[in-house]
From TrEMBL:
InterPro entries: Aspartic_peptidase_AS, Integrase_cat-core, Integrase_H2C2, Peptidase_aspartic_dom_sf, Retropepsins, Retrovirus_Pol_polyprotein, RNaseH-like_sf, RNaseH_sf
Start and end residues of each Integrase catalytic domain: 393-531
Ranges where the record places region Disordered: 77-100, 218-247
PANTHER family according to UniProt: INTEGRASE CATALYTIC DOMAIN-CONTAINING PROTEIN, PROTEIN CBG26694
GO biological process, one term: DNA integration
Keywords: Endonuclease, Hydrolase, Nuclease, Nucleotidyltransferase, RNA-directed DNA polymerase, Transferase
Listed name of the protein: Gypsy retrotransposon integrase-like protein 1
Coiled coil feature spans: none
Biased amino acid composition, Basic and acidic residues: 233-242
GO molecular function: aspartic-type endopeptidase activity; endonuclease activity; nucleic acid binding; RNA-directed DNA polymerase activity
C-alpha cells in the first residue's frame, strides 16, 4: 500500500488479521501463503482452501454424528462459539473447529448459508398451546423457534429478541410466550417466530424439560435389556426414568411444581405454619376479599399460590410464600449452592427475601448457616484472647498526673478564655487553672507554680496539642526530669480521667454562670468545692 494508509485500510487489515487467527490450522496456512490484501481476497482464498481440502479428503463419511448447533440468544453484533459434538471422538479425529470429510455444518434456522436440515438430528413430538407438532431438539440453542403457521405473529405485539448464527448473521424475530408440552412436563417459554424455519418447531435449552426429552430421543434402541440397564446405571445417577440433570438440580422439582401446576399450592394450604397467612388474604384471584385500601404488607392469592406483598428495598414486591416442606431447597440454593458462595446469615436472608418469604425466615436462615458443615470447617479461627494487663497501682499522690486544656470560653472580666485542667491519677484530685492565652509560656508558668505547691511528678500525660508539643514544654520537662507521655491521635480515651472531668467541669460552669457568663473564672473555686 503506497503512502500513509487510511483509517478504512487499517481497519480492514485488523479484520483480516483477526479472521486469519480464527481459521483452523490447515486453512490458516493455505490462506497465509496467498497473503490476501482485502476481505474479498481473504474469502476467495478460504473458498479455494476449502475446495482443495474436500478434494484431498474425499467422500469419507463422518466417523460420528455431530450435534446440531443453534445460535444462542445474544446482543446484536456478538458472535457465539461453535458447539461441541455429542461424545468424545476416537483417537486421531480432527478437532471440532477443523473440517472433516462431508462435514455437518453449524446451522441456524433462517441463515442463508443453512437451508438443509442436518442428518441425524434428534426429534420429538411436542404440543404448542395444545396443538401437536414435530420438534427438532437443538442442544446448542439457547432459544426456541417456531414457524409462522404454528404460531402466527400478532400485529399488536412488539416483543422481539435477536438470534445470532455462528457465522455472524443476526436478525430480530417476533417473540410470543406459549406453553410447550411433552413427556417431561408442560412449561411456559418465550419463542421466536420465523417464516423460513425448515422445521415446525425448534426446541432449545430454554425449555426446562429439554434435557430429559433429549435423553429420551437420543437413547439408542437395544434388544438386550441387561446391557441397556448397565449403560443406564453408568450414565444415570438418579432414580429410574429421570435424567441426571433432574436429580442433581435442586430447583427442578420446585420449578415444576410452581410453574407446571404441581403440588406447591397444595403444600401451602396444608402447612399449619401458614394458616394465619391464609386467614389474612386480601385479594383472591384478582377479587378483593377485604375492603380497600390494602396496606402493606398483605397476602394475595394468584393462580392458586400464596404471595406476600411488601415493601422491600424501596419498591413494592410480590414474594412467594414457601411452605415448611420446601424451605430446605430454598436454603440450599441460597447458601450451599456454588453460585451462592456460603455467605453469612444476613446476606443469605437478604438474598432469599428478594424472591421468597415465610414466617421465622431469619431464625431459620441463621440456624441453617450455623449448622453448615462447610462453613464450620473453612471459617477462620477466632484470634486468641488478649491477656489482661494489670494496671499499676499509684501509691504516691501527684506522681502521675494528666493535663488538658478547656476552651476557648467566653472572655471573663479578668481576660481569661481557657482552663488548664490537671488531675492526679492517685487521688483523682482536680486542679483547674484559668488562662488568658493557651500558649506554652503561660502553661509552663502555671505548671511551675503548681509543682511548687504539690511537688514535681514523675510523668505527665497530655494529648498532642500544639502547646504540649512545643520546645518550651520539652525543655521544662527535661529540666525537672519529668517524663512526657502523649495519647494517640484521635484517641482521647487514653486520658479518660481528665477528659471525663472536663465534661463535668463545663457542665457545672454552664449552670452556675448562666446569668453572667463573664464571671466563670470567679466561680471556679466554688465549683471545685462542689466536686
Amino acid at each position: 500500500m503506497d503512502g500513509d494508509p487510511t483509517a478504512a485500510q487499517v481497519m480492514e487489515r485488523v479484520v483480516i488479521d483477526c479472521l486469519l487467527r480464527a481459521l483452523p490450522r490447515v486453512h490458516r496456512q493455505a490462506v497465509a501463503m496467498r497473503n490476501p490484501g482485502t476481505t474479498l481476497e481473504l474469502v476467495e482464498a478460504v473458498e479455494l482452501a476449502e475446495a482443495a481440502r474436500s478434494r484431498e479428503v474425499g467422500e469419507r463419511a463422518p466417523p460420528f454424528p455431530r450435534r446440531v448447533v443453534q445460535g444462542q440468544r445474544a446482543p446484536k453484533g456478538i458472535l457465539q462459539p461453535i458447539g461441541r459434538p455429542t461424545g468424545p471422538g476416537p483417537r486421531g479425529e480432527p478437532m471440532p473447529t477443523e473440517h472433516t470429510s462431508n462435514p455437518v455444518r453449524t446451522w441456524l434456522a433462517g441463515c442463508i448459508l443453512h437451508q438443509n436440515l442436518p442428518v441425524g438430528a434428534p426429534e420429538a413430538m411436542v404440543k404448542v398451546n395444545g396443538h401437536p407438532f414435530k420438534a427438532l431438539l437443538d442442544s446448542g440453542s439457547a432459544v426456541s423457534l417456531v414457524q409462522t403457521h404454528v404460531l402466527p405473529p400478532r400485529s399488536d405485539s412488539k416483543a422481539q429478541f435477536p438470534i445470532t448464527c455462528v457465522h455472524g448473521d443476526t436478525r430480530q424475530v417476533p417473540a410470543r410466550r406459549v406453553t410447550i408440552s411433552a413427556a417431561p412436563g408442560s412449561w411456559p417459554v418465550e419463542v421466536g417466530i420465523m417464516r423460513d424455519l425448515p422445521v415446525p418447531v425448534l426446541l432449545g435449552r430454554d425449555w426446562p424439560g429439554f434435557e430429559a426429552l433429549l435423553a429420551a430421543a437420543t437413547q439408542p434402541a437395544s434388544p438386550g435389556g441387561a446391557r441397556r440397564g448397565r449403560r443406564t446405571q453408568h450414565t444415570d445417577s438418579g432414580r429410574d426414568g429421570e435424567s441426571p440433570s433432574q436429580t442433581n438440580n435442586l430447583f427442578y422439582d420446585v420449578y415444576q411444581q410452581v410453574m407446571g401446576g404441581g403440588s406447591f399450592g397444595q403444600a401451602q394450604r396444608e402447612d399449619d405454619r401458614l394458616k394465619h397467612c391464609w386467614a389474612q388474604v386480601c385479594t383472591l384471584e384478582g377479587k378483593d376479599v377485604r375492603p380497600k385500601p390494602h396496606l402493606l404488607p398483605h397476602f394475595i392469592v394468584e393462580n392458586g399460590l400464596l404471595f406476600w406483598v411488601a415493601q422491600w428495598r424501596g419498591e413494592e414486591k410480590r414474594l412467594l410464600v414457601v411452605p415448611r416442606s420446601k424451605t430446605e431447597v430454598v436454603l440450599q440454593l441460597a447458601h450451599t449452592h456454588p453460585l451462592a458462595g456460603h455467605l453469612g446469615a444476613a446476606n443469605t436472608a437478604q438474598r432469599i427475601r428478594d424472591r421468597f418469604h415465610w414466617p421465622g425466615l431469619d431464625a431459620e436462615v441463621k440456624q441453617f448457616c450455623q449448622a453448615c458443615p462447610v462453613c464450620q470447617k473453612t471459617s477462620p479461627k477466632p484470634p486468641p484472647p488478649t491477656p489482661l494487663i494489670p494496671l499499676p497501682i499509684i501509691g504516691v499522690p501527684f506522681k502521675h498526673i494528666g493535663m488538658d486544656l478547656v476552651g476557648p470560653l467566653p472572655k471573663s472580666a479578668w481576660g481569661h478564655e481557657h482552663i488548664l485542667v490537671i488531675v492526679d491519677y492517685a487521688t483523682r484530685y482536680p486542679e483547674p487553672l484559668p488562662l488568658r492565652k493557651a500558649t506554652a509560656k503561660n502553661i509552663a508558668h502555671e505548671l511551675f507554680l503548681f509543682f511548687s505547691r504539690v511537688g514535681i511528678p514523675a510523668d505527665i500525660l497530655t494529648d498532642q496539642g500544639t502547646p504540649f508539643m512545643s520546645r518550651l514544654m520539652a525543655d521544662l520537662c527535661r529540666l525537672l526530669r519529668v517524663k512526657q507521655l502523649r495519647t494517640s491521635v484521635y484517641q482521647p480515651e487514653t486520658d479518660g480521667l481528665t477528659e471525663r472531668f472536663n465534661k463535668t467541669l463545663k457542665q457545672m460552669l454552664r449552670r452556675v454562670a448562666a446569668e453572667d457568663k463573664r464571671d466563670w473564672d470567679v466561680m471556679l473555686p466554688y465549683v471545685l468545692f462542689g466536686v
